[in-house]
From TrEMBL:
InterPro entries: KH_dom-like_a/b, OsmC/Ohr_fam, OsmC/Ohrsf, OsmC_Ohr_Peroxiredoxin, Peroxiredoxin_OsmC. It holds the Pfam family OsmC. GO terms for biological process: response to oxidative stress. This is Organic hydroperoxide resistance reductase B. One of its GO terms (molecular function) is peroxidase activity. It comes from the Bacteria. Gene3D superfamilies: 3.30.300.20.
Amino acid sequence: MAVTRNASTVWSGDLVSGSGETTFDTSGIGTFPVTWRARAEAAEGKTSPEELIAAAHASCFTMALSNVLKEAGHVPEKLETTAEVDFDTSDGPKISAIRLTLKATVPGLEDTEFQKHAQAAKEGCPVSVALASVPSITLTASLS
């Protein structure tokens, strides 16, 4: 069974001087301003598609890892993931790289096994799969 989530954007004006608002329709958590400047230069209190992708990737990867660890008999005490998404306009606008950084507390888990599980989660999370055309998706994972 498929579950559908919705978001919408309303935009006014041209790309460079215009602006818009993106709304999280399904959850109702809010409406957030978007502009080209916020996307390609300085955020200035506005969001961008890349920040939204970073949020989606960080949460998806973290959920996937919690499941991979559980299936391997390890319950994480804490997983903290940061996703950085690079938006490059130098040769036509594109997402050029994504860096996932994970700090984890998983009692009783050796680093070698932890790294294996973290990589499996990175490769198997649905957002990673959807973003497979990004030239570089890296993961730096550490146990605390």
